[in-house]
Amino acid sequence: MNEFLELIRTRRTIGKVTDEPVPREDIEKILEAGNWAPSHYNTQPWKYFVLTGDGRKKLGEAYAKIALLEKSEGLSEEEKAALYEKSMNKAFRAPLVIAVACLPHEDEYVIGSEEFAAVAASIQNMLLAAHALGYGAIWRTGAASYHPVMKEVFGLGEKDGLVGLVYIGRSNMVRESRRVSIEKKTEWWS
Ligand SMILES: Cc1cc2nc3c(=O)[nH]c(=O)nc-3n(C[C@H](O)[C@H](O)[C@H](O)COP(=O)(O)O)c2cc1C
């Protein structure tokens, strides 16, 4: 148990990883961890898109299309091409990208925000599993991940949404992180 608590404590957001491919059996372990997250009414509203190799191209094209739509005003053709390439490369920052979407259940008793909370729990499980397996991982979002183009690329419906793009790979990167003390975050009522 102490080991598990240590794992939670030592997980860090790692944005720089090598190109070394992640074996399928490790990917499946990470997905399995995600799939065991809790969800109200056990709706399990998550959907995973596993992007490796050229499978990352569609994500790159989405980043590039969004960048051109949002940032290309006033740019020369050469600058637009550079912006396209830079944005496309974002999808290739790790050998494995797992896009995690929330597909909220339609039943009227299901609360939409809880569905997204459940998917966040699923992502945290995946980050911990990746860390346990010795990988570096980062949960990325940013304006592009909520853009209609991104939704279209992943075939998401109106009420669905991308909750995170989880980039995973081997890394030697060491990062420190800080937390506000639990005393400042906690009221004890007894
Ligand atoms: C919803 C969400 C979105 C995030 N998006 C990004 C992101 O786009 N880029 C990034 O560098 N980190 C992103 N992060 C990671 C946070 O920056 C990171 O968790 C925080 O700085 C604390 O660092 P630690 O995870 O190493 O403790 C995101 C985290 C969450 C929960």
TrEMBL record:
<feature type="binding site" description="in other chain">
    <location>
        <begin position="139"/>
        <end position="141"/>
    </location>
    <ligand>
        <name>FMN</name>
    </ligand>
</feature>
<dbReference type="Pfam" id="PF00881">
    <property type="entry name" value="Nitroreductase"/>
</dbReference>
<dbReference type="GO" id="GO:0016491">
    <property type="term" value="F:oxidoreductase activity"/>
</dbReference>
<comment type="similarity">
    <text>Belongs to the nitroreductase family.</text>
</comment>
<keyword id="KW-0520">NAD</keyword>
<keyword id="KW-0521">NADP</keyword>
<dbReference type="InterPro" id="IPR026021">
    <property type="entry name" value="YdjA-like"/>
</dbReference>
<feature type="binding site" description="in other chain">
    <location>
        <begin position="11"/>
        <end position="13"/>
    </location>
    <ligand>
        <name>FMN</name>
    </ligand>
</feature>
<keyword id="KW-0560">Oxidoreductase</keyword>
<dbReference type="InterPro" id="IPR052530">
    <property type="entry name" value="NAD(P)H_nitroreductase"/>
</dbReference>
<protein>
    <recommendedName>
        <fullName>Putative NAD(P)H nitroreductase</fullName>
        <ecNumber>1.-.-.-</ecNumber>
    </recommendedName>
</protein>
<keyword id="KW-0285">Flavoprotein</keyword>
<feature type="domain" description="Nitroreductase">
    <location>
        <begin position="8"/>
        <end position="170"/>
    </location>
</feature>
<keyword id="KW-0288">FMN</keyword>
<dbReference type="InterPro" id="IPR029479">
    <property type="entry name" value="Nitroreductase"/>
</dbReference>
<feature type="binding site">
    <location>
        <position position="40"/>
    </location>
    <ligand>
        <name>FMN</name>
    </ligand>
</feature>
<dbReference type="InterPro" id="IPR000415">
    <property type="entry name" value="Nitroreductase-like"/>
</dbReference>
